Amino acid sequence: MLDSQSARSHQGGEAIGYDAGKRVRGRKRHILVDTCGLVLRAVVHSASVQDRAGAKRVLTGLHTLFPRVGLVWVDGGYVNRVDAGLVGWARHAENVEIVAVPRNADVKGFQVLPRRWVVERTFSWLGRCRRLARDYERKTAHAEAMIKVAMIRLMAARLAGEAVTPHGPIETEAARRLADDLKNE
Question: Residue 113 above 80 pLDDT?
Answer without folding.
Answer: no
